[in-house]
Specification:
The chain is of the alpha+beta class and 436 residues long. It folds into 3 domains: 92 residues, no CATH class; 159 residues, Jelly Rolls; 160 residues, Jelly Rolls. The protein is 16% helix and 41% strand. It is built from 4 helices and 29 strands. The strands form 3 sheets. The chain has a 16-stranded mixed sheet that branches. Helix 1 crosses helix 2, helix 2 packs across helix 3 and helix 2 packs parallel to helix 4. The longest helix has 25 residues.
Amino acid sequence: MKDEHFGDLCNRYFLSTISAEEMAELDCCLKGSQDLRVKFAAEARLDTNLRDAASSFEKKEGSEISTVPSRRKWQWAMGAAAALVLIALVVSLFYPEGKTERIARIADLNGAVTWIADGEQTEGRLKVGNELTGGTLEVSSLDSWAEIVFRDSSTVWVSGPAVVTISDGGAGKMIRLREGDLFLDVSPQPEGKPMRVITPSAEAVVLGTQFNVSASSSSTSLTVNEGTVQVTRLADGSVQEVEADHGVVAALEHESPFQASPRGDSVRIWKSEYPRDVRQGSLRFGAEGHPDVLRAETHLFRGDYGEKIDPILLHSAVVGPAAGKMQPVLLSKEARFLIQGHLDQSFQVSFGFGTHHARGGLSGKFSTDRKIEVEPDTDGYFEVELTLADFRRLRSRFVESPVGHELGWFWVQTTKKDVGLSVYSVELFSPEPISK
């Protein structure tokens, strides 16, 4: 069967316009060809990610996106039965019962990390050295991270909060990042079996390289440190080849720019801009004369690795230098942060940030706590200025000092009680040049 005809059958299947005769033909093709089953599975992944992304994006107030056709209801019972049989066939062929092949191991981890494989949750039982089958890793807190090493030594650092699913089958390695940050060092992959990294808005095809990915529900940024990565924007199928020291942003709105560009020289100052720099939280657009506000998002913390505690309610707002501006933001010795926000009442607030190695992966996470006193006549407004010396590294494995490292993201957080935490802006000042 010609690729064009098979592709047409797949498109008709995913758009629910396939006839009973065409369904039977597709079913026969998949039963008779491993290569076609691999292609069908890849098409299914793209279809699922695009629909999930479009669905989440359309929920945003005032957003617009090109229509993604929804699957129509089958209008005849035979068609429905055939569809179910087809799906069952593909699942059984790719994931046979009892298959428990180990594809990777935990090389390092910290904080609230949960692994789910074969329907079994292993939170609290993960240890360095544990071998993993395909499954999903949830890194749920801001000070959490995990390092996964595949059998070919390809390494993935996952920085929380993040949700990532990994697999390694006949078509090669696949990593699906629902949200969060990944730092990847990929060994050369077998011919015809590249690693694929899929987010709600993009798919990256990798043969062997080092790169960083940051994903949200509506946008993906990717920067390449070594080698080349092919990136497809799922909204319209546009493709970019991203070379070393270049980056690209793939958003759901296909009217937005999608063009690989050089990272450029580093900068020492940065100020958050909404919605571009939002990483976590609920963005509320200000009325005339009022600024946009990032309201803290509520989530649960179930304890660090190995702990058994009652869940703690957290309220977090996270911002970070946007992909879109491909200039890395470096921290200098005299750098300081200025945070402006709102609280309904005086309360203890945690501030922190994560850093990257220059042209590399995660290098550290740093935090500090402050009791914020709000005055009745200020309507809850607060302003806090912090130097790098005010922050402590969260784990001994992290670099002792963030000086000279790239700023990845900045968080503001309260625990247990919702006190109306909102962030107006986070700004970085660096009065002196960075020493080389």
